[in-house]
Amino acid sequence: MRKIVVLTGAGMSVESGLKTFRDADGLWEEYPVQQVATHEGWLADPTLVTNFYNMLRKKCWNVKPNEGHRLVAELEQKYDVTVVTQNVDNLHEQAGSTNVVHLHGELMKVCSSRDVDDPRYQQTLTPDNCEVKPGTLAGDGSLLRPFIVFFGEAVPNISRAVEEVQQADILVIIGTSLNVYPAAGLVHYVKPGTPIYLIDPSPSVGSGIPNLTHIQKGASEGMKELMKLLGTQ
Q1: pTM of the predicted model as reported, rounded to 2 decimal places
Q2: Which range of residues forms the domain containing residue 99?
Q3: Distance, CA of 87 to CA of 73 (rounded, Å)
Q4: Active-site residue among 69, 92, 102, 104?
Q5: What CATH number should be reported for the domain holding residue 213?
Q6: Do 166 and 222 share a structural domain?
Q7: Does the annotation mark 188 as catalytic?
Q8: Could you state, in chain order, the average pLDDT of each consecutive group of 10 residues for the chain (233 residues)?
Q9: Do 78 and 128 reside in the same domain of the chain?
């Protein structure tokens, strides 16, 4: 079975109603990144950060996967599929994707602030219990913090993502500007000659990448076109 790796960014979830962080009306316009998405911001005001992610979780539970998410999951019927996502939502999983690598953490999880990656202190929240009361402690006695890779922190899953991309027979990139590293560097790990499909409405994305087919559409319409190109529809 041929292997497809799908790299997704914020544009994947826009059609589901989730704002991107970087666009003109994105979340960074409303909340300074230094306050809510850095280790320094967490240390300065953990209550503000906790409440910010409580708000995001509530928004996330109110949205559903879009057609693009569903079609990515459908690829598993004919391919060995790994989704590598920069998104912290769980819409790929909700749509049925079974092998998802989260580069920037998971919004629906919380963890120890002393050791983010210690699985003993990671918890998965549920729709009816998605709010963390500021000051709540993890099992090791440290403050419970969002299981999110803050700016400036290491990206633990990047090495796994590199391994997946190196094995890919086809690379599909959806809804990412390819400006955010280290994720943007993944495109350089494909085997020579590997076809790359980029689904993004912006005309300027992806220039200079070899073997690239740019489908200049949003996630859902772009995935429909990709399915035709791959002969799966």
Answers
A1: 0.90
A2: 1-18+66-104+154-233
A3: 16
A4: 104
A5: 3.40.50.1220
A6: yes
A7: no
A8: 95 78 48 86 94 87 92 97 94 96 94 94 90 95 96 91 97 84 82 94 78 92 95 70
A9: no
